[in-house]
Amino acid sequence: MVTRSLAAPRVRERKRGASPGVLIPALCFVVMITAVMQTAVVPLMPAITAQLGVGANAAGWIVTANLLAATVCTPLLGRLADRRGPRKVLLGVLCVVLVGSLLCVAWDSLPVLIVGRVLQGTSFALFPIGVAVLRGALGADRLTAGLGVMSGTMSVGGGAGMIAAGLLYRDGDDYRRVFWLLVALAVAALVVAWWVVPSSPGSGRGGGTDFWGAAGLAIGLSALLVALAQGETWGWVSLPTICCAVAGVLVLGLWYWHERRFDVPLIAPMLLTARTVAPAHLAAFLVGISMFIQFLAIAMFVQVDPGESGYGFGASVLETSLVYLLPGQIVGVTAAAVSGLLVRRFRADRVLLVACAIGVGGFSFLIFAHSHTWQMIIAVAVLNVFVSVAYGALPAMLIDHVSLHDTGVANGINAIARTFGSSLASALVGMLLATITIAGTDIPSERAFVAAFVVGGVTAASAALVAATSRIWQFTKFD
């Protein structure tokens, strides 16, 4: 049975290395830079466009290229960590991220900046590799708590990136001031990981290299992500968008067929579709949608000029960061610390269910109450609790159903599911704001933001339904 083949053996011996009291906070810092590097760039896009003298469409590849690299590299690096040992791969990824960060500040050039962002995109693999490190280093009594704290901390990194950008950048400043922060974070993370992360052997599995599997996964995922990222620019029913989407689906279908027949596949199909792991991946996709809608729509809503639109608060990037986002981030950090204890005390699917119910409540409040600053602050705080606790529960839903030597790749798949959810959310928000506008203008209507909040609530409710029925999935054969 698939369930038996995925069952995780007990870790009989704890690996030598730093104590859990040191290792867990260190890995929290290391994996948090993933979210910081993704979101710190978002507020800088207008400045980058102006200072480099390029169009908005060309500058958009700064974000798209980063996501493409993340999508392609995360499962591949997760598998490499499983085979060669997580410490080696973790340090290698941090070196690549440091090189990419240095490129972003070394030249004032769009092509170089895009290359740097591609290299920074490998940082998305830090989280699944970090999960593998914890699983190899901690006993079962500490593992779930450690995973919850690390996952929840990463979830607040997105807001931390926005806050850092708001503090470091002022109108007219060189946009590279924020990228210097990313250089410093990469150096600090590399030093911390070098001294703290313990060595552990990989599976050492051989049997040939699955080149076709790697190529198919890279091409299929990239085509789908390009369709999502460029759909608004090209047109959602334009030939390039449709061709990318269809090609992505077809290539991934062929990739799945190939992986089922390859003796030593790059990613075993059962790690993607088996009834014991599929609920966690689907829930991650849905939580990724809700999380990014909360982050993106709220940040844009509070910056709308009320004099032109009749709603919003006209907040600057700095005000958005400190007034509207920072209180919620503090609450999110607290929730992240608690999430590990909750997952340890209760089943992960039940914790996820409660977290998603909190998310539904937060979006429901936001739909009807968003005209005062205190209402937005409360909504952000509630939604940060949802995201932090949900992120803490998702790895725990996987950990009991995959072997020790599949930990990195399984969590890499889960991370990619969240990434695709975030990409879809970005496309949805952009489409809503572009199509639901104030009559006679191109200014988004208040109804556009309300519609985005409704979508966030619906996806949070859908994730709750997945969590509530995850045990039933184990009796239904999907793979």
Automatic annotation (TrEMBL):
Residues 23-471 form the Major facilitator superfamily (MFS) profile domain. The chain crosses the membrane at residues 21-46, 58-77, 89-108, 114-134, 146-166, 178-197, 209-228, 234-257, 278-302, 322-343, 350-368, 374-394, 415-436, 448-468. It is a multi-pass membrane protein. Pfam families: MFS_1. Its main location: membrane. It is found in: Cell membrane. Keywords: Membrane, Transmembrane, Transmembrane helix, Transport. Coiled coil: none annotated. The keyword Transmembrane applies. It comes from the Bacteria. This is MFS transporter.
